[in-house]
Amino acid sequence: MSNTSWQVKARYNRKVYKRIVADLDNELVARWEDKLKADNIGKSEFIRRAIKAYLGEG
């Protein structure tokens, strides 16, 4: 990917998406990652679903 293409994509992502960060216990994250892998769900998808469920949207 050219430098210009990368810059355009980065600018778009900054405009459209919001990054969230959470510090979690290593053991909890390891168990979560194992379960996600077993269920074939990505981390972002899991968080997206959880937020929508919390908001009553899904």
Describe this structure in words.
The chain has a domain at 20-58. The model has no long low-confidence stretch (mean pLDDT 94). The radius of gyration is 15 Å and the shape is extended. It has three helices and no strands. It has helices spanning 3-16, 26-39, 43-54. With 58 residues, it is mainly alpha-helical. Helices cover 69% and strands 0% of the residues.
Sequence-ordered SSE layout with sheet pairings:
Layout: H1 3-16, H2 26-39, H3 43-54
Question: What's the SSE pattern?
Answer: HHH
Q: Report the total helices.
A: 3
Q: How large is the radius of gyration?
A: 15 Å
**Which blocks of ≥5 consecutive residues have pLDDT under 50?**
none
Give the terminus-to-terminus CA distance: 36 Å
Range of helix content: 55-70%
Average the pLDDT over all residues and give the rounded result. 94
Query: What structural category characterises the helix and strand content?
Result: mainly alpha
Primary descriptors:
58 residues
Explain briefly what this protein structure is.
With 58 residues, this protein is mainly alpha-helical. The protein has helices at 3-16, 26-39, 43-54. The longest helix is centred in the first third of the chain and has 14 residues, at 3-16.
